[in-house]
């Protein structure tokens, strides 16, 4: 029998949320094609799923407009090293997951060298810098979008696209058990819990730790029965947040968890969350939330000029209405965060209405994402 060449996939994720998506993508493909090989950059979830990581994912963990400028030399070298590796050891397809400022440039060079390219998770070209769609059209053979309105944008610009649904909408049940989650975390079953989710990046911890902790402290002083929980993507983020906790609110009844963010969401009554994928997860767990985000002053001024959407939180973008409060920059004060958290606790009827809307959005995002992604990847590999 003729020996069949093992197919190899290059893959790159830039942060924790991309690591989770990459891991599920690898698992979906390997369930149908067990001998596929994966190499590139991922986090612990992708490594556990079978990705051979060539470099540390932390080298890509940058955010905003200004902060990455200080990392340009290292990022240029990293992209050059990856390009050289994939040219010398060409994969059958390269899949860039999110991290568009890094990935799209690499994808363009790889595609020009004859390597088929898929980009998974659309950059927010529909929100700002729409001119980027021209470069994306040259850089990818196929765009995979998580959200339905993104696919419509690419269709309008004649970029090959497939809406594959959001895997989190399949993974997270329509209904979850709060008490079961609390038992899994070994916390009080009957207490009222506020979850603090300040983000997975170092800069997010830097900007959001103080307002979240001070908001929690204010809420606790007003309602001494409240308890608080927080989750962090790894030990490094936990230690960084813990230092702020010791500095600002050392007596706050706050329990820390690492790599348990979904359990913490499921266990919470209300959530303070930094804008990003965590807002979508919180929505899928049907938890009332306050979305807050701070960044450097210069980054914020640039964002105000460039961002064209009325909302920043994914629940609000999906609904195209302000379902949950968004507190950005100076508006993300401890007082405002505290006020919104307590408002949810004081008005259970608002929470019920919000949960019904979240359920509708959850169903909208459900699709056979694993099957859709597998079919899409194999179609590009087969056409190569």
UniProtKB/TrEMBL annotation:
UniProt entry tagged with the keyword Lipid biosynthesis: yes
InterPro entries (UniProt xref): Glyco_trans_19
Keywords attached to this entry: Glycosyltransferase, Lipid A biosynthesis, Lipid biosynthesis, Lipid metabolism, Transferase
GO biological process: lipid A biosynthetic process
Catalytic activity, reaction form: a lipid X + a UDP-2-N,3-O-bis[(3R)-3-hydroxyacyl]-alpha-D-glucosamine = a lipid A disaccharide + UDP + H(+)
Enzyme Commission no: 2.4.1.182
GO cellular component, one term: membrane
UniProt cross-references to Gene3D superfamilies, sorted A to Z: Glycogen Phosphorylase B (3.40.50.2000)
Pathway info: Bacterial outer membrane biogenesis; LPS lipid A biosynthesis
Pfam short name (any one): LpxB
UniProt GO MF annotations: lipid-A-disaccharide synthase activity; phospholipid binding
SUPFAM superfamilies listed in its UniProt record: UDP-Glycosyltransferase/glycogen phosphorylase
Family stated for the protein in its record: Belongs to the LpxB family.
Job of this protein: Condensation of UDP-2,3-diacylglucosamine and 2,3-diacylglucosamine-1-phosphate to form lipid A disaccharide, a precursor of lipid A, a phosphorylated glycolipid that anchors the lipopolysaccharide to the outer membrane of the cell.
Protein name (database record): Lipid-A-disaccharide synthase
Originating gene: lpxB
């Amino acid at each position: 029998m003729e020996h069949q060449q093992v197919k190899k996939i290059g893959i790159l994720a830039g942060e924790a949320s991309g690591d989770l998506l990459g891991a599920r993508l690898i698992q979906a493909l390997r369930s149908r094609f067990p001998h596929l090989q994966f190499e590139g950059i991922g986090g612990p979830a992708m490594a556990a799923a079978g990705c051979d990581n060539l470099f540390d994912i932390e080298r890509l963990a940058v955010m905003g407009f200004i902060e990455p400028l200080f990392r340009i030399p290292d990022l240029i070298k990293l992209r050059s090293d990856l390009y050289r590796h994939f040219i010398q050891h060409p994969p059958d397809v390269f899949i860039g997951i999110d991290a568009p400022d890094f990935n799209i440039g690499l994808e363009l060079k790889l595609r020009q060298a004859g390597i088929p390219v898929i980009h998974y998770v659309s950059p927010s070209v529909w929100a700002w810098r729409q001119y980027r769609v021209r470069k994306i059209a040259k850089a990818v053979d196929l765009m995979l979008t998580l959200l339905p309105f993104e696919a419509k944008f690419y269709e309008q610009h004649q970029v090959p696209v497939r809406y594959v649904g959001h895997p989190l909408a399949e993974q997270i049940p329509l209904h979850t058990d709060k008490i079961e989650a609390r038992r899994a975390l070994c916390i009080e079953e009957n207490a009222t819990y506020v979850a603090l989710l300040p983000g997975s990046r170092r800069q997010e911890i830097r900007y959001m730790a103080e307002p979240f902790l001070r908001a929690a402290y204010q809420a606790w002083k007003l309602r001494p029965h409240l308890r608080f929980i927080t989750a962090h993507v790894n030990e490094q983020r936990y230690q960084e947040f813990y230092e702020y906790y010791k500095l600002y609110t050392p007596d706050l009844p706050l329990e820390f968890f690492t790599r348990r963010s979904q359990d913490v969401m499921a266990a919470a009554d209300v959530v303070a969350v930094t804008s990003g994928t965590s807002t979508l997860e919180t929505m899928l767990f049907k938890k009332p939330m306050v979305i807050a985000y701070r960044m450097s002053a210069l980054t914020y001024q640039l964002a105000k000029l460039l961002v064209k959407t009325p909302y920043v939180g994914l629940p609000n973008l999906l609904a195209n209405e302000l379902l949950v409060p968004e507190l950005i920059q100076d508006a993300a004060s401890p007082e405002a965060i505290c006020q919104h958290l307590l408002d949810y606790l004081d008005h259970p009827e608002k929470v019920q209405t919000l949960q019904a809307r979240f359920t509708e959005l959850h169903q909208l995002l459900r699709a056979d994402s694993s099957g859709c992604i597998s079919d899409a990847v194999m179609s590009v590999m087969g056409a190569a």
